Amino acid sequence: MMAEYLLFATERYALPILGPLAETLQAAGHGVHTLFIRGAAGATLPAPARPVGVREAVALRPRAVFSAANDVPGFIAGAKVQLFHGFNVEKRSDTRGHFRVRGQFDLYCTQGPATTGPFQALAARAGHFAVVETGWPKLDPLFRAADPLADALRAGAGGRPVVLFASTFTERLSAAPRLFEAIAGQVALGDRFWLLTLHPKCPADLFDRYRALAGTNAAFVETEQLVSAQRAADVLLADTTSVVSEFVVQRKPVVTFRNRAPKPHMIDFDDPAALEQNLAHAFAPDEALREAIAAYADAIHPWRDGLSSQRVLEATEALLRGELGRLRRKPLAGWWRSLKLRRELGYWGR
């Protein structure tokens, strides 16, 4: 039966997460509507996904609201489903980071065993949300048959090895300002082709510097093109960004600069002068590194069929049918966050 669904986002990086889900909903004949605010305001998904304002979203009475943000408007009807805006990269403690429960969601769609277990334990204690491991919709395009943009980015390399550089915006963790000169030197050499991207919250002057490197030996990639860039690249250079985990799911090597929690699947370094030797290692990984990459990929996202969006829909329907158990009432903290979001959106009823 055809139904209406709402996709909610607060930052542009949510668009590649919600896009595959929108396509899956539309393919099933459902209506798809988007409520994008804050950093995502003005952004759109391809038609027939339709942008709506907060009053129209309330009047829509969607069957479910899918959020790729920390919050969700609790005053809008429908099941509230958390999709996550990244992997757990241990930027913060569990209670402040990936495993923080804010009391607003009915269903958490987890990415893989590494996050499913902890969230199931939290659900058992809290009782006001359910957990289903579905995989992450953002990664569906990594495992689909064709990606013309990835092919075009690869073609731009002219047969050269391809390096993708991605950086977080968190100042104390960001490699972008610290590695700029080293990367610029590598781009000038021209023996490899570089795809360059930054988190949307990075400073504007940093964007200008990296965009200026684009040319024969490099291309700048926008946030919405990141998944295609990951398909096109052979090796990733990054820091403490969740792009590291996204890239590793493909079982490709990653080089990290001063990662907050370095692990065996990473080639971590702390001296910009050592960039070349660490890239060389990544392009010729030994068996131990390959095994570490595969083990980590299986722990965080074992799904390689491109069907995570479909599993999200199935889990949501199971929730609505009552198959995931009866949920307790949401805590006061969740009500308070929803009230603050209501005030931000200026909605106090008809």
Profile the largest sheet: 7 strands, parallel
Shape: globular
Low-confidence stretches: none
Number of strands: 13
The secondary-structure class comes to: alpha/beta
Name the assembly state. single chain
Mean pLDDT: 94
Rg of Cα set: 20 Å
Bin the strand percentage.
Answer: 15-25%
Helix content: 25-40%
Q: Number of DSSP helices?
A: 12
Secondary-structure element series: EHEEHEEEHEHEHEHEHEHEEHHHH
- Order of strands, main sheet, comes to 3-2-1-4-5-6-7
Amino- and carboxy-terminal Cα gap: 29 Å
Which key features would you list for this structure?
single chain; 350 residues; alpha/beta; 6-stranded parallel β-sheet; 13 strands; 36% helix
Structure notes:
- It is a single chain.
- By secondary structure, the protein is α/β, with parallel strands linked by helices.
- Helix content is 36%, strand content 15%.
- The protein has twelve helices and 13 strands.
- The strands form two sheets. Strands 3-2-1-4-5-6-7 form a seven-stranded parallel sheet, with helices on both faces.
- The protein is globular, with a radius of gyration of 20 Å.
- 44% of the residues are buried.
- The mean pLDDT is 94.
